[in-house]
């Protein structure tokens, strides 16, 4: 019996390459089950951590956001700290 395909919950910001990975992950899960999906996810994480985060975020957006918040809290950072860092990065007066 085939597994049900994984559903993309939040497709915003996905590139064509992200969609190719999503399709491969869905195929692995549908055809071979959870173990194949876990292997494919581990491979993606090793090859491209940024793409891995975008793909996981497409499947589990709320969980990814919560995990990021938790990790930031563990580092002693909050949303205001992150906004300040972004503001400094985007500032035209930053060091040249």
Give the SSE map.
Elements: H1 16-32, H2 34-47, H3 49-59, H4 61-74, H5 79-90
* Helical/strand content category: mainly alpha
- Helicity range: over 70%
Tell me the overall shape.
elongated
Number of E-type strands: 0
- Low-confidence segments, given as residue ranges, are none
Strand content: under 5%
Number of DSSP helical runs: 5
Spatial extent as radius of gyration: 17 Å
- Compute the separation of the termini in Å: 59 Å
Element order: H for helix, E for strand: HHHHH
What profile does the largest beta sheet have? none
Average pLDDT over all residues: 90
Tell me what you see in this structure:
There is one protein chain. By secondary structure, the chain is mainly α. It is built from five helices and no strands. It has helices at 16-32, 34-47, 49-59, 61-74, 79-90. Helix 1 runs antiparallel to helix 2 (34-47) and helix 2 (34-47) packs across helix 3 (49-59). The radius of gyration is 17 Å and the shape is elongated. The relative contact order is 0.12. The mean pLDDT is 90.
Brief summary of the model shown:
The protein is elongated, with a radius of gyration of 17 Å. It has helices at 16-32, 34-47, 49-59, 61-74, 79-90.
